[in-house]
């Protein structure tokens, strides 16, 4: 079954149900996947890009492959070991066919595509498949290749990937390697990089569709995420209204013009968890404002970045303390605080 067909069959109201909310993102992604198109998911760290890509892999059906580590189709193997007929057949689930590559300037074309082993090239001949050690892209065969922050990878690698996508083959050194592996490519970028200087070339971008994944659409959705994904400490009560206020505060930071980087959903989960443990340490059964306040420096301060004009006049933790104090005062006035 082709991936396209899988996603057509899985078409429900909530195909990617590991992600809470994000209806628009899910719809766009599904639409791209049905047509077998490559995508770049543009979103801030911590919004769930990896979870979404893993969810795509999870939807892929269990298949019979060779046990070579490259998910070779037994009828049509691609790796040196299988071509030498040394593999056994195994069943492998979609979620096991998820390969993550972290885009960084150190990443090489060889990491991604593979390399020619000089000793084996001498033994078997330079153009023999036995001399080739397949790279990560082959491990994603019949699965999902998740390329995180693809724009941070060197241009040379981007060009090699482009060649793979366009021609199904790639040149390593003086060798042309046919790349018959089949995979769904989901790459990511941070919005600042997408808008800023670390842009991908136009030729490269032209090969992809862009899927925007923003912060949770509402505080109530974020509350769902936080309470489902966050740890719950036994015996500690976290008042719903109080949690909502904290999440509204975090949400407000995302629109705060003083900040260059705002806290992610991970920060929200962090505050939720640490406030509970602080309540426990402070010998309380119910989370109080003070427990949240005590976790702020450790959880939030490094997750924000002040604008350059402010960075030298105030520390992030002091800035947060000020903002939080003001926020709580306003919530008290408006009667939102429990
Ligand atoms: Zn193989």
Mean pLDDT: 88
The CATH architecture assignment of the largest domain turns out to be 3-Layer(aba) Sandwich
Bound molecules: zinc ion
Output the CATH class name of the largest domain.
Answer: Alpha Beta
CATH superfamily of the largest domain: P-loop containing nucleotide triphosphate hydrolases
Structural class by secondary-structure content: alpha/beta
What fraction strand?
Answer: 15-25%
Radius of gyration: 24 Å
Describe the structure.
By secondary structure, the protein is an alpha/beta fold. It has two domains: 3-212, 3-Layer(aba) Sandwich (Rossmann fold), CATH 3.40.50; 219-333, Magnesium chelatase subunit I, C-Terminal domain (Helicase, Ruva Protein, domain 3, Orthogonal Bundle), CATH 1.10.8.80. The protein has 16 helices and 13 strands. The protein has helices at residues 3-9, 23-34, 49-59, 80-83, 109-112, 118-124, 136-139, 155-167, 191-195, 202-205, 219-229, 240-254, 265-281, 289-299, 308-311, 316-333, and strands at 39-42, 63-66, 89-92, 98-102, 114-116, 132-134, 143-148, 169-172, 175-178, 183-189, 209-212, 259-261, 305-306. The strands form five sheets. The chain has a five-stranded parallel beta sheet. Strands 2-3 form a two-stranded antiparallel sheet. Helix 11 packs across helix 12 (240-254) and helix 12 (240-254) packs across helix 13 (265-281). It is elongated. The structure holds zinc ion. Zinc ion binds next to helix 4.
């Amino acid at each position: 079954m082709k991936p396209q067909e899988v996603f057509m069959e899985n078409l429900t109201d909530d195909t990617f149900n590991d992600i809470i909310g994000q209806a628009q993102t899910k719809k766009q992604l599904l639409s791209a996947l049905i047509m077998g198109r490559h995508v770049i998911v543009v979103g801030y760290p911590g919004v769930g890009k990896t979870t979404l890509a893993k969810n795509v892999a999870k939807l892929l059906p269990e298949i019979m492959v060779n046990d070579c580590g490259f998910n070779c189709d037994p009828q049509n193997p691609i790796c040196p070991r299988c071509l030498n007929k040394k593999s056994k057949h195994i069943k492998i689930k979609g979620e096991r066919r998820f390969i993550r590559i972290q885009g960084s300037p150190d990443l090489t074309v060889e990491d991604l595509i593979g390399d020619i082993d000089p000793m084996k090239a001498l033994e078997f001949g330079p153009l023999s498949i036995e001399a080739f050690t397949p790279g990560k892209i082959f491990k994603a065969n019949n699965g999902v290749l998740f390329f995180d922050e693809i724009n941070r990878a060197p241009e040379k690698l981007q060009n090699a990937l482009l060649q793979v996508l366009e021609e199904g083959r790639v040149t390593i050194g003086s060798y042309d390697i046919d790349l018959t592996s089949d995979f769904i490519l989901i790459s990511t970028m941070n919005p600042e990089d997408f808008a800023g200087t670390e842009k991908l070339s136009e030729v490269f971008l032209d090969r992809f569709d862009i899927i925007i994944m923003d912060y949770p659409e509402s505080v109530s959705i974020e509350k769902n995420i936080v309470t489902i994904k966050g740890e719950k400490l036994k015996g500690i009560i976290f008042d719903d209204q109080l949690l909502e206020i904290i999440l509204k505060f975090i949400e407000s930071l995302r629109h705060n013009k003083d900040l260059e980087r705002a806290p992610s959903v991970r920060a929200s989960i962090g505050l939720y968890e640490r406030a509970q443990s602080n309540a426990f340490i402070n010998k309380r059964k119910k989370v109080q404002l003070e427990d949240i306040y005590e976790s702020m420096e450790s959880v939030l301060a490094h997750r924000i970045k002040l604008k350059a004009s402010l960075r030298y006049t105030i520390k992030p933790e002091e800035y947060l303390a000020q903002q939080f104090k003001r926020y709580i005062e306003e919530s008290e006035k408006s009667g939102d605080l429990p």
